[in-house]
Amino acid sequence: MLVGHIGFIAWATRRDLDIIRKLAPEQITRELVSSFPSILATLQHLYQGNVWWFSRMRGDPVSWEQISIPQSFAELDANWQKLFDEMAAWAKSRTRKQWSITVTNPNTKKTDPLWQAVMHLSNHDSYHRGQLTTLIRQVGGTPTNTDLINFYREAFKP
User: Fold this and answer.
1) How much is the pTM?
2) Per-residue pLDDT tens for 122-153?
3) What is the rounded (10 degree) CA torsion for 75, 76, 78, 82?
4) What is the tally of structural domains in the chain?
5) Residue among 53, 29, 66 nearest 124 (CA)
6) d(C-alpha 85, C-alpha 2), whole Å
7) For position 148, which CATH number holds?
8) Residue range(s) defining the domain that contains residue 93
9) What is the DSSP string of 132-144?
10) φ/ψ (deg, to 5) at 36
11) Which of 138, 137, 90 is nearest to 117 (CA)?
12) pLDDT confidence of 104, banded at 50, 70, 90?
């Protein structure tokens, strides 16, 4: 299930990136009212969160400030594809025992079971993908459907 949720994170984000690639640069950087001021800024936050949580999951935590955030959509898109490939390979290589470890927040020193970190990341990304849906509509684009059930239907076809 956890490997599936890491797959869902990549699948849903890639679907959004496919739509955003069709937008003009001005649409991607246009200032809008939301949690983050543009589509690009929302994507940068998602990317930063993915890197931060994944670093904790692998046992090599970095601070929020240490993460290099791509400044252009093209760079962000390319870096994200590499990150998702790395996350998928890592997840598939975990044993049952390795999934039961805890991960530590380097700032607060709080620990969480690995499975909760994966589920939190999936939930966090879904929350901001909902914002992306609205932002894409506000700039005249047509968002895609990133519902979890659609991922299950595609990834786990009988």
Assistant:
1) 0.94
2) 999 999 999 999 999 999 999 999 999 999 99
3) 130
4) 1
5) 53
6) 15
7) 1.20.120.450
8) 2-155
9) HHHHHHHTT----
10) -125, 150
11) 90
12) confident
